Amino acid sequence: MQFSSDLLESAVNEFARLPGIGKKTALRLVLHLLKTDASMVQGFGETLIRMRQEIKFCQRCFNVADADICSICANSLRKQELICVVETIREVIAIESTQQYNGTYHVLGGIISPLDGVGPDQLNIEALVTRVQKEHTQELIFALNPTIQGDTTIYYIQKRLHGSGARFTTIARGIAFGGELEYADEMTLARSITNRLPVESYMAGR
Amino acid sequence: MQFSSDLLESAVNEFARLPGIGKKTALRLVLHLLKTDASMVQGFGETLIRMRQEIKFCQRCFNVADADICSICANSLRKQELICVVETIREVIAIESTQQYNGTYHVLGGIISPLDGVGPDQLNIEALVTRVQKEHTQELIFALNPTIQGDTTIYYIQKRLHGSGARFTTIARGIAFGGELEYADEMTLARSITNRLPVESYMAGR
């Protein structure tokens, strides 16, 4: 692309560095900002800079936070002895949006994947082990993606916490609400029969 | 979406205001910035703010510029008596990227569209009329989209410039290079036969 303005060109290049944003989309976004009020654009830029400089990670669960301890860990109304183990902040946001979970989290920062060079040491697993032992956690709910890497991570953590007295569970796998039975993959369908639920508990969740 | 950090939430909201960016994409972009070096994010924010505050529009052709006159108008090697009339800056960038055009531009800032409440007064048409008469422009090349609005705009400008001595042309319409004949729409195909070219001139352009 040829630009007649260096200012325009650098703004497009900055946007195009973001994942999933190509040069054409970047140009569209910049031309939109050009038509937007200057004070709004200033607010946009300053918000990003401030977010990056001031945001913290919770020292207990590694979730994003505005203080040393995140608002979920600091909330005494939540069950502190219940930990949901997730890969990234993204899953915390997804689960929080359901407004159904009342425990705490632990963000691993990834999953064990030897092929990608990610071992237990690169993740927040040691901190989880220490936390569970120190806080006498009652239950760990694994909410990891159902891949070999996810299963390996569950297996490793479970082994490290052997004898800690904590109970280990994973989120339920099965046919999604609204999902058509005939289009479900065989593995999911087979497991959903093996792990079938009493009708009362199914109805109670509706 | 539920966020455990206000800083994160405002950054996501700022991104989600951009056209074509939903909340999920905004979150993905913000989480990417969180992993990026703080000085890079600062550069990103400052570039946007500076672009919006310092960018100018060329007083002659209304293209974006870093000075009062854009680099195309200021370039004495380009044919100043040739004006390509376009709707937005986007088309200037597209045509410049071909590196085939050696004249100047005039950015209308839109096209005449009574249904959307856009009349000639909302566009940079008066400035174009003045410019053509003052500069004794030899040719106006209309590079507008082939819609009723585009045709209306061409018709209006041509009428306003009647007797100015300028020649009026439009960019060629036809089957795109690499386009399959059988998938072309009838109108384009019919016009491409009516406006057929001598083989020599076709070959010369390859």
What is this structure, in a nutshell?
The structure is a homodimer of 206-residue chains. With 206 residues, chain A is of the alpha/beta class.
What does this structure look like?
- 2 copies of one chain form a homodimer.
- Among the domains of chain A are: 6-54, Helicase, Ruva Protein, domain 3 (Orthogonal Bundle), CATH 1.10.8; 77-171, Dna Topoisomerase Vi A Subunit, Chain: A, domain 2 (3-Layer(aba) Sandwich).
- Chain A has a 4-stranded parallel sheet with strand order 4-3-5-6. Chain A has a two-stranded antiparallel sheet with strand order 1-2.
- In chain A, helix 1 (6-16) packs across helix 2 (23-35).
- The first copy, chain A, has helices spanning 6-16, 23-35, 38-54, 89-98, 125-135, 148-160, 186-194, 199-204; strands at 56-57, 64-65, 79-86, 103-107, 139-142, 167-170.
- With 206 residues, the first copy, chain A, is an alpha/beta fold.
- Chains A and B meet through helix 1, helix 2, helix 3, strand 2 and helix 4 of A and helix 1, helix 2, helix 3, strand 2 and helix 4 of B.
